[in-house]
Amino acid sequence: MKKTKVRFAPSPTGPLHIGGARSALFNYLYAEHCGGEMVLRIEDTDLDRSHREYEEEIIESLQWLGLTWTEGVNAGGENGPYRQTERLDIYRQYVQQLIDQGHAYYCFCSQEELEAERQEQYAQGLTPRYGGRCTQLGAEEVNRRLAAGEPASIRFRVPHNTIFVVNDLVRDTVSFESENTGDFIIVKSDGIPVYNFAVVIDDHLMGVTHVIRAEEHLSNTPRQLAIYDALKLPRPEFAHISLILGDDHQKMSKRHGATSLVQYREKGYLPEALFNFLALLGWSPEGEKEIMTKEEIIQSFSLDRVSKSPAVFNIDKLNWMNQQYLKQLSAEDLMKLLLPYIQNGKYAEEWTKLSAESKLVLIEAIREHLVCLSDVEEQMEVFFQPLAYEPEAWEVLQQENTALVLQRIRNELPEFSEPQEIKLFIKTVIKDTKLKPKDVFMPLRSALSGKTHGPELPNLIYVWGRENTLARLEETLRKLSSQNI
Ligand code: GLU
Q1: What is the mean pLDDT of residues 413-434?
Q2: 4 alpha carbon to ligand 1 midpoint, in Å?
């Protein structure tokens, strides 16, 4: 049996979209599951919209996500070049073969003529398709017009009364009647082949066995099948994966928030979390387990369990998943990942003044409050902002016993060298005063941070340091006695 080979074939006309990333991932998973290979091919035949920067950005995004490929731009391989604009000579031979065998012909119709034809068909309530003016031009006329330098495109002659059947691995059998497809252009008048043609030649020459791609390409497949058949090339297997919808069940677009992978990367989602999340977007493993390692996903991946119905992008689920992955990191690793956000943020200077121990305590203290890495700045606020009271905190401070508790802590707070010692000290205060823990913790938190929620108090106090903590307490006691915030 032929070795499984898949490909991801992005057009470098923008950053890698979530949908593209999911297609790449499914290809990767399928190849890895089968012990096969993956090709990365750049489909840059749209010269106006294709840019090298996007190609680079797409590759970087794929690498960041943890995907690898054995052949393609930046990986090399024996079936290159892997950029379509560098393969024009290769396509030319196949175009010539199609022309020689009568499967393709030169078309001299101008844009204006074609547009007029389309308008007429619309007016008659017909689906616009090529009317066939150049189908029967004689070789002599063609050669004369070409020699005169008349612009010409090349059209594929679609066979009549043929039904193209796609035995799709996800969507089962899908049939298309050839009568619905007019003769279509395969090479534009500037000599550049179009996607539907180049893709066939490339997939064939690159040895692709499985074409796994977005559902939006299903309607292109009959054209591609017609070319495979005309050139007598074996067809690969096809698997068209369904659309990704936003949570309002509309096609995912910018108004649903971030749509490109790089935006998620910048926000500080972990690649492992996105890998896991995207894998479950349209594929469901057996069992209930949702947090899965890369190896587990590869092991259980199959196209049988890829859903026909659209997948819904649920940001809450991604957030939850990212938190699960953040929880698994050691404080040191988490700190490394957070560092760029901290260093570019509001508290960069304050951060550098902390001891190595305080840095780790701070990271531990905020860890469970982070959804993604860029939340770090907001979570650091409480450590570095001057004291200001939220109304709820000021209310807590009005409770009976508050002054007593605060004064006692101010008078007795010991020197400390780890958060545990602070915790023990607060416990002693609770025991001695016979108050409920909450009646000590809440006033203390409110007095020190001006808030009723936040990181664990011993950690906060540790990072502030004894002096700063006492100063904050003093400040609150002073304001309380004058009742003036
Ligand atoms: N270049 C196409 C795209 O970016 C991919 C088509 C395919 O996978 O066949 O949508």
Answers
A1: 96
A2: 19
